[in-house]
Design brief:
- This protein has 379 residues and is of the alpha/beta class.
- The protein has one domain: Aldolase class I (TIM Barrel), CATH 3.20.20.
- The chain has helices at residues 5-13, 18-25, 32-40, 87-98, 112-119, 133-145, 164-168, 176-187, 190-198, 218-228, 237-244, 257-265, 287-298, 313-321, 331-362, and strands spanning 61-63, 66-68, 72-74, 103-104, 124-127, 150-154, 248-254, 270-273, 303-306, 326-329.
- An 8-stranded parallel sheet has the order 3-10-9-8-7-6-5-4. A two-stranded antiparallel ribbon has the order 1-2.
- Strand 9, helix 14 (313-321) and strand 10 (326-329) form a beta-alpha-beta unit.
- Helix 1 (5-13) runs antiparallel to helix 15 (331-362), helix 4 (87-98) runs parallel beside helix 15 (331-362) and helix 12 (257-265) packs across helix 13 (287-298).
- It is globular.
């Protein structure tokens, strides 16, 4: 049975076609930032304390106003529905059972409406800014109608980063040869072919079906995104967005103190210290290294979350000690879902909560709100 995020990763790698496994695992360029994200957390020491009454450890917290059993949310993940049959729906069920928020990506496979009808549970929605403001407004209206009250606006993608694994596997190029390469990889995973590709239909980009009738074709989708991603977006667009979104607004992709202050100035309810999991600017700083300065600068004015490289409940404790209200995870939930479906993801989340509670007890703290820099070993 898988016990750690790495165990889930190994299991997922044996079940996914190569292009999907690398899509999840990969980063931009030489993947230096991807590696730095993961390496930074273990370098943060935790103070062990003894003979403290920790009989009543409680991992409960709130994120974006939502009560959570631990300060963790599932980050938005494009193509999540290809990792398991109706993957985002399974992930939402697992997150709801674990008492943590799930975030649906604009470019997910399952639509806003499918998730709302399938569970009745609330979830967060992630937005990419597109040139077609009518499409953006439509997505916002649909998300609100489905019960979403937290919008996660990804701000670090004026254009996609260079992801060489996708190029090697035929994900980043149109044409017959890349399609044949992907088909070869699919045929090497008959279990995925039967369970996801055949039994999991329709494999469409669910939120974009109205604008992209051929929404199942990766080449057509890539051309659509290339035409729609807007590198000219600035802070000024936040006024337009704020006027159309009455709920909570989190800006995801903040890595600089000045940008964090700008996020507060435009009225964001929170921000996510993030470098897109190392998938955008290779050479950007690890999020664990940027978190303390950003939390110190704006943590009193807005809710600060973090993602990137966290692999355990111990890392979640570290994030809180560095000043985050909580964290988002992407790859760990993707691996658990791909390797074991809803049950696998439930197991991962239960493990993280147990790790967090154990770390709290051994550090001599019983409440999430009490975790702070005093629990770090500065030596």
């Amino acid at each position: 049975m898988p016990a750690t995020s790495d165990d889930h990763r190994a299991r997922a790698g044996g079940r996914l076609p190569r292009f999907l496994a690398d899509y999840v695992d990969g980063g931009a360029g030489a993947e230096q930032t991807l590696a730095a994200n993961v390496a930074a957390w273990p370098g943060i020491g935790i103070r062990q304390r003894v003979l403290v009454d920790v009989a009543g450890v409680d991992t409960a917290s709130t994120l974006a106003g939502d009560a959570c059993r631990m300060p963790l949310a599932l980050a938005p993940l494009g193509l999540g529905g290809l990792l398991a049959r109706r993957g985002e729906l399974q992930a939402l069920r697992a997150a709801t059972a674990a008492g943590v928020p799930f975030t649906l990506s604009t470019v997910g496979i399952c639509s806003i409406e499918e998730l709302a009808a399938g569970t009745g549970a609330p979830f967060w929605f992630q937005l990419y800014w597109l040139r077609d403001r009518g499409l953006v407004a439509d997505l916002l209206q649909r998300a609100w109608a489905a019960g979403c009250r937290t919008l996660v606006f990804t701000v670090d993608l004026p254009l996609p980063g260079m992801r060489h694994r996708d190029t090697r596997n035929g994900m980043a190029q149109p044409g017959v040869r890349p399609k044949l390469l992907r088909l070869t990889q699919v045929l090497a995973r008959p279990g995925w072919l039967w369970d996801v590709a055949l039994r999991g239909k329709p494999l469409l980009f669910g939120n974009l079906q109205r604008q992209l009738p051929n929404a199942r074709d990766l080449d057509a989708f890539r051309a659509f995104i290339d035409a729609q991603f807007d590198p000219g977006v600035t802070w000024a667009e936040l006024d337009w967005l704020r006027a159309r979104w009455p709920g909570r607004l989190l800006l995801k992709g903040i890595l600089d103190v000045d940008d964090a202050r700008a996020a507060v100035a435009v009225g964001a309810d929170g921000l996510v210290v993030s470098n897109h999991g190392g998938r955008q600017l290779d050479g950007a700083a690890a999020t664990a290294l940027r978190l303390p300065a950003i939390a110190a600068a704006v943590g009193a004015d807005t809710e600060v979350l973090v993602d990137g490289g966290l692999r355990s409940g111990v890392d979640l404790f570290r994030a809180c000690a560095l000043g985050a209200r909580g964290a988002l995870i992407g790859r760990p939930w993707a691996w658990a879902l791909a390797g074991g479906g809803e049950a696998g993801l439930r197991g991962l989340l239960a493990s993280w909560q147990n790790e967090l509670a154990t770390t709290m007890a051994l550090a001599g703290v019983t409440r999430i709100a009490e975790i702070g820099p005093q629990h770090l070993d500065r030596a």
